[in-house]
Design a protein that fits this description.
Chains A, B: This is Glutathione S-transferase family protein. Chains A, B: It holds the Pfam family GST_N. 2 copies of one chain form a homodimer. The first copy, chain A, is α+β, with helices and mostly antiparallel strands. Chain A has 2 domains: 100 residues, Glutaredoxin, CATH 3.40.30; 106 residues, Glutathione S-transferase Yfyf (Class Pi), Chain A, domain 2. Helix content of chain A is 58%, strand content 8%. The first copy, chain A, contains 10 helices and 4 strands. A 4-stranded mixed beta sheet of chain A has the order 2-1-3-4. In chain A, strand 3 and strand 4 form a beta hairpin. In chain A, helix 1 runs parallel beside helix 4, helix 5 packs antiparallel against helix 6 and helix 9 crosses helix 10. Chain A starts with a strand and ends with a helix. Chains A and B meet through strand 4, helix 4, helix 5 and helix 6 of A and strand 4, helix 4, helix 5 and helix 6 of B.
């Protein structure tokens, strides 16, 4: 059975692959699971039909038979649990990979999202500059710790896992900010993630929504 | 094997049970798993010994034989996966309960934590009042959706689960704010969570750290 996910009809990031469907697409590519996509407009996201799938009126959602899920982290975990490739077989290593999934979503992503809120929702405030600096300081504090832990490692805990997938995706939100420049090992880590063929396929598929070209066409153009 | 968790030596909430060890204590009580606690000072949390357990220098951590975890969400999930009582047996219901865990941590908690950051870290700013109002507005937006979804239900998806445990804990952070007053069903939901004997035992245990009385003594005093 092919699952159906939802994505923005018009992504606010113009196809940079920062919307939350990107993590789900990437996870599905990692495990080799084909999927269908249903595009949702901003107004449809807030209507009852979509809220039956996601009470908070957001994308992505995931439907597979009689199972309906929301939250990109939960969907990635579901995919990782049902298919080989995103979580190690060893019980302790598997638990540590899941720990990194939670660490991304609870400890790293919130400080990064705050910077975006500052930039896009509070840019007209007189205190915007001051708040932005505070937000960036909090990001650097987390990245200091993350960079130290990653060290010279290729991935966060041995083999690539769902934890790395989510972490790379959230660090990508900082591209263009200059903040990652102080952390060469984190830049290399993101580059390693983006270099995976699975990432490329997922990226092209979400970009095709924006450009209107099918992703296979995009690949031929490249 | 009895696991060891870490908690604040001096909790900033003075024993209100809002520190992240409370979720882990409550989960351990729900599944009937005894545990040891090692208290950590603010300075020790930032040292290499503790950072080997949690790279971000936070509590709680969880040690069990050769397994070391961090992130309260991940630890609660680990407990829920290894013991009966926090996740349904039915596969789809289990996946939905896990979805709620992620929803708490990714969608509800971040907006609530922003209010605390505003109150405790930005109270000396001239823009403090304006920021606080914005933070509260974002919280209400999430609570509108959450309250609608919960409706007249007892728990988020049928039986009490690890998703409810985390959600009740995060909503408790709003006590005293007056924000929950507009959502009688969410107040009743939090009260239902706090009425569980497992909650009471976990709460007393964390309070005992602050009062210096063993929790059994507290129970006798009550």
């Amino acid at each position: 059975m092919i699952p159906t996910i939802t994505a923005f009809e018009q992504s606010p990031d113009h196809g940079q692959g920062l919307a939350r469907d990107m993590s789900v697409r990437w996870a599905l590519e990692e495990v080799g699971q084909p999927y269908d996509v249903r595009l949702v407009s901003f107004s449809a996201m807030k209507e009852a039909t979509h809220r039956a799938l996601n009470p908070f009126g957001q994308i992505p959602t995931y439907e597979e038979g009689d199972l309906a899920l929301f939250e990109s982290g939960a969907i990635v975990f579901h995919i990782a649990e049902r298919h080989a490739g995103l979580l190690p077989n060893d019980a302790n290593a598997r638990t540590r990979a899941i720990t990194w999934m939670f660490a991304v979503l609870s400890t790293v992503e919130p400080v990064i999202v705050q910077r975006e809120i500052s930039m896009y929702l509070e840019h007209d405030k007189v205190w915007h500059e001051e708040r932005l600096l505070i937000a960036e300081e909090r990001i650097r504090s987390r990245l200091d710790d993350l960079s130290t832990r990653l060290g010279a490692g290729e991935w966060l805990d041995g083999a690539f896992s769902a934890g790395d997938l989510l972490m790379v995706q959230v660090l990508r939100r900082l591209s263009g900010s200059g903040i990652l420049d102080d952390y060469p090992n984190l830049i290399a880590y993101v580059v390693r993630g983006e270099a995976r063929p699975t990432f490329k396929r997922a990226f092209d598929a979400q970009l095709a929504v924006f450009t209107g070209k099918p992703s296979s066409q995009l690949e031929r153009d490249a």
